[in-house]
Design goal:
Length: about 300
């Protein structure tokens, strides 16, 4: 989406949470500290979540319904598309001193009060505060505030859906993992072992990552053409398959592509092959590697 009307509201709430952290030392001992101010912030986050989840449901193809519930309909649908329950948020603020700094705000790990139905921790807090504020003040706690703010952060990122061009930065050193937040950060999935059938090889933490480091579409297309040309021309000749060599040598690479290509060229040169192959299709593979452009994109499960 081109703009996010929800983001300024989220950042305003964040600024109030930051201010709160100067009045409460946020560590494990104070997770259950509660107050009217924290309850108010939890409620405001919940109102935003209700609205933004329904909007995401509509624009991402959710079936039309006469009455749309934000949790049982909208979030359930979005989770089926994007595995929200697996997505991790990192508490990265220097004002937080919590032992557990990784949150998964869309996992249903708490039963609704007076029920055996599991729900999100923050949703249980919201429902209690909304329906019986006087008897539910304990739900306006630091723990529930961080859980619900993390959920709202994730939904805002999916609403914005911004792709960040990184040029030749294959290690994503220039990518801001906070994405504009002063409290939270995301996990970035990194893997550049290339498979032309699957295109993107997933590490074990793929579903936890809200953003993916990948190459742009043009780079992949150009590299794919060079690879296919090489395979056609050298079909009956001894193979010096650059991609197989890279995959074998760097099975867990975080995408040190420039260094890898240089090492590969050196190997060919040492074997007396580079002079022969430098003008052939295999050199085009190396050229395309060196020209590849990278980007960070939202993880919507398209790979």
């Amino acid at each position: 989406m081109n703009s996010n009307i929800y983001w300024p509201v989220y950042r305003s709430i964040e600024s109030e949470i930051e201010n709160l952290m100067f009045h409460i030392h946020v560590d494990d001992a104070h997770l259950n500290v509660y107050s009217a101010k924290i309850s108010d912030l939890v409620m405001r986050c919940a109102v935003e979540i209700e609205s933004i989840s329904k909007e995401l449901y509509k624009v991402n193809g959710g079936p039309q319904k006469e009455k749309l519930n934000y949790d049982e309909d909208a979030l359930k649908f979005l989770n089926s598309k994007w595995k929200l329950d697996e997505k991790s948020v990192i508490i990265s603020s220097g004002n937080c001193f919590l032992t557990k700094r990784e949150l998964k705000p869309f996992q249903k790990t708490e039963n609704r009060t007076n029920s055996n139905r599991p729900t999100y921790t923050w949703n249980n807090a919201y429902q209690n505060l909304k329906h019986d504020r006087v008897s539910s003040l304990k739900f306006g706690s630091v723990k529930y505030l961080f859980d619900i703010a993390a959920a709202l952060y994730v939904l805002n990122l999916y609403f914005k859906e911004i792709t960040f061009p990184l040029g030749s930065d294959s290690s994503a050193k220039t990518f801001d993992l906070s994405l504009g937040s002063s409290i939270f950060s995301v996990k970035l999935h990194r893997n550049f072992i290339i498979d032309f059938e699957k295109r993107y090889i997933k590490n074990i933490d793929f579903d936890e990552c809200i953003y993916l480091l990948t190459f742009d579409d043009r780079s992949f297309e150009d590299l794919s053409k060079a690879f296919k040309l090489h395979m056609r021309i050298t079909e009956s000749e001894p193979q010096y398959d650059v991609l197989k060599e890279l995959n074998k040598k760097y099975p867990n690479s975080d995408s040190f592509i420039d260094d890898v290509v240089i090492a590969q060229i050196d190997r060919l040169a040492q074997n007396g092959l580079w002079g022969k192959l430098n003008k052939g299709p295999i050199s085009q593979i190396d050229v395309q590697f060196l020209k590849m452009k990278f980007e960070a994109r939202i993880n919507k499960g398209e790979f």
